[in-house]
Amino acid sequence: MHKFASYISVIAALLGFASTGACVKAALIPGTQIPDEPRNRDVIKVIETYRRAMEERDSSKLMSMAHKDYFEHSGTPTGSDDYGHKGLLRVLSTRMKQVISLRYDMKYLRIHWPEQGQAEVEVYVSASSQLKSDEGEQWHRMTDYNKLVLLQEKDRWLFLRGM
Asked: Contacts from 52-57 at CB under 8 Å and sequence distance 24+?
């Protein structure tokens, strides 16, 4: 009986070891559920530069990050509020003049790679801003899901949509 018990313990230990090994997950980028891979890190680094430029209200920096074919669909049924690269400049310069202060946080949810050199990054945005208005200063809070689409051009990533 003693011999049988030791076989059982060895089998149990091996099964425990095997099941532990099967549960090992790939390393994740801290604070996300996104695999820690160089291309994922590169894209998130670009988006973090974008996020900081938003908080700094740096329209020039933001425009330098937009691809020449940038196009925003605005998510509405009509095309009247859609705009391209020139429209982005107009939107940024108009809106940034109204902003007194801005906190702009993002939670990275997923990164898709639909084709070579293109990334689609799903984010959850939480922002609060202090705005100038005709009625004086007002606080505005916004939370929303967004998809940022970036295209690699030579050695840099540029935004095609989502800014």
From this structure: 54/102, 54/104, 55/102, 55/103, 55/104, 57/96, 57/99, 57/102
Q: What is the pLDDT of residues 66-78, one digit of tens each?
A: 999 999 886 677 7
pLDDT at 2: 52
- CA-CA distance, 150 to 47, in Å (whole number)? 9
Could you tell me which of 27, 52, 34 has the C-alpha nearest to residue 123?
A: 34
As a whole number of angstroms, the distance between CA 35 and CA 23 comes to 15
Distance in angstroms (rounded) separating the CA atoms of residues 16 and 19: 5
- What are the beta bridge partners of residue 137? 132
Using only C-alpha atoms, what is the Rg of the chain?
A: 23
| Structure confidence at residue 7 (pLDDT) | 47
The whole-angstrom separation of Cα 33 and Cα 6 is: 41
Q: What is the pLDDT of residue 24?
A: 60
On the question of pLDDT at 139 being above 50, the answer is yes
